[in-house]
Amino acid sequence: MIRLVFVGKTKEYRKEIDEYMKRMSALARAEVVEVKEEKITNYSEKVKTAEGERALRAAGDRYIVGLDERGKQMTSDELAKFLKDKDDVAFVVGGALGLSKEVISKSDTVLSLSKMTLTHQMARLVLVEQVYRAHMIMKGRKYHK
User: Fold this and answer.
1) CA angle 70, 73, 75 (to 5 degrees)
2) Which pLDDT tens digit goes with each residue over 126-144?
3) Residue (of 55, 72, 79, 78) closest to 128 by Cα position
4) Among 96, 145, 107, 128, CA closest to 4
5) 2-138 CATH
6) Which listed residue, of 19, 86, 103, 131, carries a Cα 20 to 30 Å from 25's Cα?
7) Around 13, how many Cα atoms within 13 Å sit in the side-chain half-sphere?
8) Residue spans of beta strands (DSSP E) within 1-145
9) Distance (Å, rounded) from C-alpha 93 to C-alpha 120?
């Protein structure tokens, strides 16, 4: 089971994300879970901490992959190999301020989608597409080229 935990509602790219999730349903069990985001204040660590607690609860007792710009980068083929032997994975995408220190420290793997900064809304779409692509690669389908 792939659980995609997003802090806050998906406001942009909803149609595209839904399309990839629909396609993925033929390849793997996957779901999107959105947790409440905090109103951004001057206390950004408090905001990230509160959001992080919710995200970790939603991730549950799974192998946790936190998405952070300082994380490890992988090619699509490497992501497919990485996911191949993992039965229960939660990818966690933070809100506008990113992930809390607690989420980063409790992540089994920290992954970066790009060296460039992506909005948290864009990161959701890129992540969903790459997870779909990884499953296509694992199934030997030609989509990924």
Assistant:
1) 165
2) 999 999 999 999 999 987 5
3) 79
4) 128
5) 3.40.1280.10
6) 103
7) 14
8) 2-7, 30-35, 63-72, 89-93, 109-111
9) 7
Backbone dihedral angles phi then psi of residue 68, each to the nearest 5 degrees: -150, 145
For residue 89 the two structure tokens come to 């994975």
If you write DSSP's letter for every residue of 1-17 in order, what string do you get? -EEEEEES---SSHHHH
Both structure tokens of 128 = 């969903």
Residues 23-73: tens digit of each pLDDT: 999 999 999 999 999 998 777 899 999 999 999 999 999 999 999 999 999
DSSP helix/strand/coil, 67:
strand
- Residue 68: closest CA among 101, 19, 90, 36: 101
